[in-house]
Structures are given as structure tokens and as C-alpha cells.
Amino acid sequence: MAGHAASSVGGRKRSASRQRHRLRLLWLASAVALVAVVARLTMVQFFDSSRYAAYAAGETAQKVVLPATRGAIYDRNGNLLAASVPTVDVVADDFQISHPTTEARALAPLLGQSVSTLIADLSEHNGYVVLAREAAPSLETKIAPLGLAGISFLPDTQRTAPDASLFEPLLGFLGANGAGVSGLEEEENATLSGKAGSELVGIAPGGVALPSSTSHVVPPRQGESVVLTIDEPLQVEVTKDLTAEMKLQHARSGVAVIESVKTGAILAMVDLVATPKGVIEPASQNLAVTSVYEPGSVMKIATFSYALKDGIITPSTPFIVPMTKTIGGYVFADAEYHPTETLTASQILAQSSNVGTIHIASLLGMTRLGHALADLGFGKPTGLNWPGESYGIVGPSSSWVGSDTGSVPIGLGEAVTPLQILDAYSSVANGGVRETPHLVQATISGSGVEHATATSSRRVLPAAIAHELIPMLEGVVQDGTAVCAAVPGYAVAGKTGTAQQVATGGTGYVPGDFNATFVGFVPAQAPQLSGIVWLNHSADPYGGSASAPVFAKVMEYALRRYDIAPHGAPTPSPLTCSATSGA
């Protein structure tokens, strides 16, 4: 009995000991858990608070883009050519709209839409419906006070061009995303576009902005404005004169560019096309830079400039010139019949003799002619950095064989842009120095500070050679193929070009279908302005009678406008231009 009692007492002691042990373990586990909870709370409160605050903000905040105002475009006189005006997009979140019919009736008279159309739009259930795009900001002030659920307003801008018909090929267009996709809008997009900003706005579950909840505002950076070298009044005059001649010649398209000889600044650049009904309108692109054609005799400047440079000719060097010359099985002929005659180099250029020019080119050699074309800028970018600019098609001199040795010197078998031709003649006018052509004169920052655009130049001919060429080019206008380019009271220098249209596929020519070109500069002995006029598919094939008259009219206006005084003996004005011809 006594043993059993002792055993029972021992058992109870062990049981009590185990209970105390379990209790200590429970308290220890509770203490550990409490420490862990406190540690976690401390971590959340002091170390991870910003992360969890961001999570919370992400559930209630919405990032709103603040669009940057696109810079404006001005002409050289400060006339506005393109600008962005503030607009607003009216947007509906149809998931938040419980009464589409009620809201549609309230919005219909303000949006100018039918109630039935708006009911359908407000019932689409896609969460985002644009009810009005690029509307006047005043529309928001009319709709907002109505307090309509699910209706919001997004700031936007609209690009406007007061004189779009004059400058469309130059200015270009914006894409759906507001970035430039053509013309100057594309070329200067980085300058004009600026940088969008943003802000975080608190949004309640019902989609309503929370008062005083805007935070993290990144203001937009306004785009810079661009000042062009273009002179709007001159652009108007050139457009008028080119339009009139295109109608007279039934031309399919026409280009005219006026440039400052000393700076390379483009003062007017006009690109026109004729519709099938004969209506003259702006081209869809800048043809002066993007379109290439076989120009004809204006390319003779390469042969004559390097023949003078290499000492092969002087202006008075005589040559025996027959009517025709056969090269590689192809007969080359002068534009007008004449017996075999003796002509000086100056007379060959003035009368645009193909046979005489080919003979001088044979003395020069094709390798040197290739260097002349390259140095004058043919087959190369002009430096205008225009989107889609063509470099032209001028093959290497090593590939000129057979009839090529006759066609290339007179501007056949090669394709160039009007601006390349103009820049070559501007280089001669500028004493052999080529100024890079440019359309942007300066930029204006958002704070109104103007920064002039850097320009560049390079010598392409010795000054002495350019000075020898100028009187020879004067002879073209005095008594050669371009008497219609004469400007009353001024000495004019230049060159005509006539070429048949290349047939589709690039093989052969289209009978009776021509390009007519004149390029020149004034005053001849102290050049200030240069210009080119190109008529595509002209009824009159001759640059001297189709294109030269436009040059004369435009330059007469420009010389008066810029108050440029005559210099040297003026070129005699012709009694009539109707019979003028010349290759």
C-alpha cells in the first residue's frame, strides 16, 4: 500500500513538472511571436512605409500626361506659318454611367450630336469612349458644371497653318501621335515637340478626382519655335508667277526656288502640281529636293568649269563645231540647224551647242568630268537634311562608255534635283564657295531666347575660275538661249536646260514630252540672289522661253523688295520672248 501511494505521488509530481514545462514553452512561443509581430510592425512602420504607401497610391492614383505645347513656325519676318492651339478631348468611362439616356440628353446640344448617337456611345461598356476630339477649351467650361458621372476632359492641342496652300509641301504634317511625319514638321520634330510632363491624381472608387490629391507633378517642357529663312511675300509672288506659267504651258508640275547667294538661305521654295482637271495646287511633297529628273544643258556648267580650271579652254578659245557628232552609234545634234562653224567657248555655252560641249568634254576626259560633277554637289546630299531627300543618280565615270561620253556632258543619262542644280550655280555666283542651303534661320526657346542656326560652306572652285565663268553665263542671257531671263536695269547670268522625258522603265524617251529649266543669278557681277525654275511636261520644251520668263518676273520683284542696286551694264531686254529657244 505504502509503495503504491508513493508511486502515485511521484506520478503527480512528474505530471505537474510536464505541465510547467509546457507552460514555459507556451510563454516562450508567445514571447517569440510577440517579438516577431513587433519587429514586423517596426519594419512596416519605419522601413517599408514608402513601399506600402506606393502600393496604396497605386490603387487610388492615376498618372495623367501633361502634353507639351509644340513650338510655332515663323517666316523670316515673324509671320506665323504654323502653331499649336489648346484643345480638349471629352472622354466617357461608360462603366461609371448609370443613366446614359439622361447624360446623352444633357450632352447632345453641347456636343452637336444626336441623342441616339450619344446613348449608343455611352452604352458601349469598353471603359473609354471619345465623345469629342480637339474641341475648343470652352466646351469643358460648359460641360464640367453639369457634374455628369464618368465624363472627363483630357488636354490636347491642334496644329493650325494660316496659309497652308502656300507652304504645305514645306511644312508637312503631324501624325496621330502629334509627331511630325513629313516636311519641316518631321525634320525639326525634336526641336518643335518639347517634352510631355505628368502628374499623379487621386481617384475615388467612383472615378471622381479626390480634392487636393494632385502630387508628383512633372511640368511639361514647351517645344522651341522655329524661324525660317522663307520670305512669305516672296513665296506669294513666286507661287503666282509659277502658277500662271504652268497654266500657259499645261505643265504637270513646277518648281521654283530663290536663294541668297551669300548665305545659302532659301527665300522661297514653291512646289506645284496640276490636277487632271488642270487645277494648280500645292504638291504633296517638296519636289525641289525629293524629285529627280534629266535636266539637259544646265549640267554643262561641270564641263566648262573644269575645262577652265584645267587650262583646256579660255572663254575665247575657238572650236570648229559641226551640226552633228556620232558617238557610240548615237547621233548628237545641236538644237537648231547650222552649217559647220567656228565658235568660241563662250559662244558654245551661250548658244548651248551640244556638239561643241561634247568636244570640250572629250578634251577634259570623263574622269575629270566625274570629279567636276561631284565637286559641284551632284549625286550627293545638299546638306538641307530634308526627309526623303534624293541624292540624284550620277554614275561613276568608269561606267561611262560609248554614247555616255556624249550624253553625260550635256545633262543626259543622269538625274538630279532642282536644288542641286541651283546650288551649283550659286557656288559659281559666290566666287566658287558653296554655302550649304538651309531653311531654318533660328530657334526660339520657351523663354523667348533666339538662337541663330549654324551654317557651313566649302570651296568647290577657285575664285578665278568662277569669275571667268560669270561673263560666259551673262552671254547666255545677253544674246544666247535665255534672253527672256533679262531683268530691266540689271545684268543677269544663267543657263537654260531642255530634255525629253525618260520613258517608263528608264529606257528611251517620250516623243514630244519635255522638261524645261532655267537657273541663274543677279546682279551678274555682284550676285545676291539665285533662282531656278523647272517646268515638268511643258508644252514649250525650251527653258529659255518657258522657264526663263518666270525667273525674270520673280527676280524683278525680289530685287525691288530687298532694295538691291544694279551693278555693271544691264542685260538688254528682248523685244519678244515668244520665239526664244535653246537646249
Description:
- The chain has about 575 residues and is an alpha+beta fold.
- It folds into 2 domains: about 65-195, Penicillin-binding protein 2a (Domain 2); about 230-560, 3-Layer(aba) Sandwich (Beta-lactamase), CATH 3.40.710.10.
- Helix content is about 35%, strand content about 25%.
- The protein is built from 19 helices and 22 strands.
- The strands form 6 sheets. Strands 2, 3, 4, 5, 8, 17 and 18 form a 7-stranded mixed sheet that branches. It has a 6-stranded antiparallel sheet with strand order 11-10-9-22-21-20, with helices on both faces.
- α11 crosses α17.
- The mean pLDDT is about 90.
Please indicate the percent range of residues in DSSP E strands (runs of 2 or more). 15-25%
Q: Radius of gyration in whole Å, from Cα?
A: 38 Å
What form results from the Cα inertia axes? Answer: elongated
The main pleated sheet reads as:
7 strands, mixed
Instruction: Determine the CATH superfamily of the largest domain.
Output: DD-peptidase/beta-lactamase superfamily
Number of helices: 19
CATH class of the largest domain: Alpha Beta
User: Per CATH, what is the topology of the largest domain?
Assistant: Beta-lactamase
> Gap between N and C termini, in Å?
146 Å
Which segments are poorly predicted (pLDDT under 50) over 5 or more consecutive residues?
A: none
Average pLDDT, all residues = 88
Number of separate structural domains = 2
CATH architecture of the largest domain: 3-Layer(aba) Sandwich
Q: Please report the total strand number as a whole number.
A: 22
Q: Which structural category fits the helices and strands? A: alpha+beta
Q: How much helix is in the residues?
A: 25-40%
